[in-house]
Amino acid sequence: MTDMPQLIDPFARAITYLRVSVTDRCDFRCVYCMSENMTFLPKAELLSLEELDRLCTRFVELGIRKLRITGGEPLVRKGIMTYFEAMSRHLASGALDELTLTSNGSQLRRFAQPLADCGVKRINVSLDTLDEQKFKDITRWGRFAQVMDGVDAAQEAGIRIKINAVALKGTNDDEAYKMVEWCGARGFDLTFIEVMPMGEDMGDGLRLDQFWDLKDVRAHLAANWTLTDIPLNTGGPARYVRVEETGQKIGFITPLSHNFCESCNRVRLTCTGQLFMCLGQEDEADLRKVLREGTPAALDKAIHTAIARKPKGHDFDYSRQNVTGTMTRHMSHTGG
Ligand code: SAM
Ligand code: SF4
């Protein structure tokens, strides 16, 4: 190990959180994320499991304390448990505080216990609706019962669950109460996410018509319950409230209508080894090339140079008639 300094960006933010997309593939085709006939990357473009281990290990040595694995659907990557097993050694050594993932839940019946055995204590499961038909409409290929079974399996394995629900006007806006109640009854945390203008325009005006401002979601919930702001800052885009009647914590991720950049502590690695310093900017660093062709010192230099380019903030803006600052990149490539 070299004694290079830890990862501090130009705005004095310590970078301690790495999100890693391990595949661009998925067994669902959510309407806001992928087109139905999505073309996936050739396998040679992806970092191998061994390369992912090497790169993430270096990030951990440079001060990353939290790893979140995402995709695509991380649990459809062949051999993915080899990678989780490899990362669990950093939990065991104390170098890493948390190893976690974001999943659509479809494969959890099979993987929940092995994940728990690797030290995974919390999982984010993306679920936008409790209505079987709507679930089919949103995910196109998903099976609701399979996800419910996966969620049960994770709970049986002792893993804490947070449900992430994308707020979609005209689709799940009549279910906000029901989601809160269901999560409360099951002991799950819940976070609502604003739909973001990712991916190519699929003839739907970049989802502007589906955009449901979380201020409105909050007002909708406040009609039934007393919501109190919680001053909880995770360095991420979520703001939290407590439902006084039930004691539940609810998060709101508002990357568009609320700017959260000043406390950003994270960077994102794509499944092809590009490091994105900001979800909302195009700037990236190609770590795959240096990982495959360079020395360990060159890799360190490439990581530090990239962090030195982390921008102050992003440019999404839904507040005008036209969507500006949209990204042609797919969320499944960068990792949500
Ligand atoms: N397949 C996994 C899942 O669905 O949880 C992990 C990857 S997915 C890209 C991560 C998160 O991104 C999900 O919660 C999904 O709802 C969210 N997401 C995808 N496209 C989005 C968009 N256009 N706007 C907001 N959230 C989006
Ligand atoms: Fe797959 Fe997740 Fe994208 Fe849905 S949001 S298509 S589950 S990667």
Description:
The chain has 336 residues and is α/β, with parallel strands linked by helices. It has one domain: Alpha-Beta Barrel (TIM Barrel). It has a twelve-stranded mixed sheet. Helix 1 packs parallel to helix 2 and helix 3 packs parallel to helix 5. The radius of gyration is 19 Å and the shape is globular. The site of S-adenosylmethionine has 19 residues, from strand 3, strand 5 and helix 10. Iron/sulfur cluster (SF4) binds next to loops.
Associated small molecules: S-adenosylmethionine, iron/sulfur cluster
Share in β-strands: 15-25%
- CATH fourth-tier homologous superfamily: Aldolase class I
Could you list the spans in which at least 5 consecutive residues all have pLDDT below 50? Answer: 200-206, 317-325
CATH topology: TIM Barrel
Q: What's the average pLDDT?
A: 88
> Which structural class should the secondary elements be placed in?
alpha/beta
CATH top level is: Alpha Beta
Rg, alpha carbons: 19 Å
**What is the H/E order?**
EHEHEHEHHEHEHEEEEEEHHH
Overall geometry: globular
Provide the number of structural domains.
1
Give the CATH architecture.
Answer: Alpha-Beta Barrel
| Tally of DSSP helical segments | 10
- Relative helix content: 25-40%
The total of beta strands comes to 12
Physical arrangement of strands within the biggest beta sheet: 7-8-9-6-5-4-3-2-1-10-11-12
Biggest pleated sheet: 12 strands, mixed
Distance separating the two termini: 31 Å
Main traits of this protein?
single chain, 336 residues, alpha/beta, TIM Barrel, twelve-stranded mixed beta sheet, binds S-adenosylmethionine
